[in-house]
């Protein structure tokens, strides 16, 4: 979705900022109220907010960090080859 909406770079930066907050402290990762509050107040984009809210509402907040890491991997596989060309590397 982010790639088609041309906001992949901003969403990737949002993911990195949230991961920096979550890294190292298991309590932060497990506290869904804290994570939701940080996402709401942290000026994150709507795509990341939507993802976090969806995971929390479905009781999957425990896998949030893993999902963010997977998003990073996928973003890193989208390599800018030329000035306007993106390629999916498998």
Q: Alpha-carbon distance between the termini?
A: 18 Å
What average pLDDT do the residues reach?
Answer: 81
Number of strands: 2
**The number of domains:** 1
Q: What level of helicity do the residues show?
A: 55-70%
H/E topology pattern: HHHHHEE
The side-by-side strand order for the widest beta sheet comes to 1-2
Estimate the strand proportion.
Answer: 5-15%
Give the uncertain stretches in residue-range form: none
Please compute the radius of gyration using only Cα atoms.
14 Å
- Total number of helices: 5
User: Which structural class fits the helix and strand makeup?
Assistant: mainly alpha
Based on CA inertia axes, which overall geometry fits? globular
Largest sheet: 2 strands, antiparallel
């Amino acid at each position: 979705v982010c790639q088609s909406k041309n906001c992949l770079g901003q969403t990737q930066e949002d993911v990195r900022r949230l991961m920096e907050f979550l890294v190292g402290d298991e309590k932060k990762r497990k506290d869904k109220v804290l994570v939701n509050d940080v996402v709401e107040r942290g000026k994150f984009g709507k795509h990341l907010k939507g993802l976090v809210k969806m995971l929390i509402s479905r009781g999957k907040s425990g896998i949030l960090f893993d999902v963010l890491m997977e998003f990073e991997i996928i973003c890193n596989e989208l390599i800018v080859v030329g000035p306007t060309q993106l390629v999916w590397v498998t």
